[in-house]
Amino acid sequence: MQTMATVSQVLKETQETAPVGWVVSYEYPDQIGVNHPTFTNDEFIFFGDINGDFSFNDSFSKGVCGYMANLTDPKEIAASFWKQLAYFYPELLKGE
Questions:
Q1: Closest Cα to residue 30, out of 44, 53, 13, 47?
Q2: pTM score, whole prediction
Q3: Residues with Cβ < 8 Å from 47, sequence gap 6 or more?
Q4: What average pLDDT score do residues 71-92 get?
Q5: Alpha-carbon distance 96 to 94, whole Å?
Q6: Is the pLDDT of residue 33 over 70?
Q7: Are 77 and 10 in contact (CB under 8 A)?
């Protein structure tokens, strides 16, 4: 059985693979914040370990959400995050 990645491991991978313009930061309590300069206040993304699987949603529940069921590797989790986020923001993640 593989060990679940920590938030700090996924944070590092998400920062390293962030497309140009995206800002990835640590957010209390043990969450990852993802932002883009073109976002309004209700588009800030929270990303983290929720009950043993990583998932994400926007701060004001505008329908931006995704889930990384059964992924434990930080690189796979970060890659899945960016791929899923491209669905919601295709114009900001072209070619990703």
A1: 47
A2: 0.91
A3: 10, 14, 31, 32, 33, 34, 54, 55, 56, 81
A4: 95
A5: 6
A6: yes
A7: yes
